[in-house]
Amino acid sequence: MGDGLRHDLDALRKEAGLAVERAESLEALEEIRVRYLGRKGMLTRALRGMGGVPEADRPAIGRLANDTRDEIERLLGERRDGLGRMAMSKRLLEEAVDVTLPGIPARVGTKHVVQQVLEEIEDVFIGMGFEIEEGPEVETDYYNFIALNFPKDHPARDMQATFVVNPEIVLRTHTSPVQVRGMLKRKPRLPLRLIAPGRCYRRDPADATHSPVFTQVEGLAVDVGVSMGDLKGTLAEFARRMYGPMTRTRFRPSYFPFTEPSAEVDVSCTVCGGSGCGVCGGTGWLEILGSGMVHPHVLENGGYDPGKVTGFAFGMGVERIAMLKYGIDDIRLFHGGDLRFLRQF
Ligand code: DAH
Predict the structure, then answer these.
(1) Considering the domain boundaries, does residue 103 fall inside one?
(2) What is the pLDDT of residues 7-29, one digit of tens each?
(3) How many degrees, rounded to 5, is the angle at CA 44 between CA 64 and CA 67?
């Protein structure tokens, strides 16, 4: 009894199995599921025939219907997994990367030549017991000028073409303000030895030897009994370390408001060694820095007693030192950002 229905269910299972086998996508599988197993699907429809099945056969037919449903679901699940695996291998194939191909090399930067030379200068002075101090690039008129013995309207201010922010604020024209800041921070500590590297700004038109942005290193030593001899010895040693053991130094009298006496320092020409050439203009000497004995007013402004201590100071332009070291003839190259220039160092 119920053979017709049994037969229908069997046919249904086969038909669904075939459809599943042919399905090429998850969407197609879902359609098949709805078509055969959905609430209004073929299985439900087939079971409408249950009414005509004798009572005794119904449990067996019911089991068969359940088995049929389970079997179709199992086939759907298998096919779903199979399609998933196929999709995955297709993707893997399409997205395969040949890891043995050469890569695109990352361009590694280099330290800017000014920074390299600056670090060389720092190393020499750190070796002599100096410590590094930094100050602000936007500076007060007080630290940039007044504390260094440049009163308002003093003609010495004309030497420093200043970017003025307002009457009290300037872009620092030199690193000398860090002398006073450094002293105030450390007073009454002795001995005091510091170097202050950093950017400075002047309202100069740019040409081969002038740039509105440049780098200086300031030096300051304060202690009981510091003399001009200490200054000369320190800078002569610096020149030898920087330019080689045969380098000679020469001190020429000069003027700065914050030192007394003041001197400009030359080194024997790094190109010709002193015999005279184009680089040194035939003189055999190259000017590299300004220096002097710290003026008593400056010591006072730094919180030290000029009756008890003395000090020396110096300041140099790092670009100039680098130009002499590498034979660079135009200061504008340093801040022009041309990689063809910068990559040479
Ligand atoms: N600050 C000076 C300038 O930029 C350079 C200088 C000269 C610094 C003499 C010093 C010094 O410390 O003693 O022109």
Answers:
(1) no
(2) 888 888 999 999 999 989 889 99
(3) 20
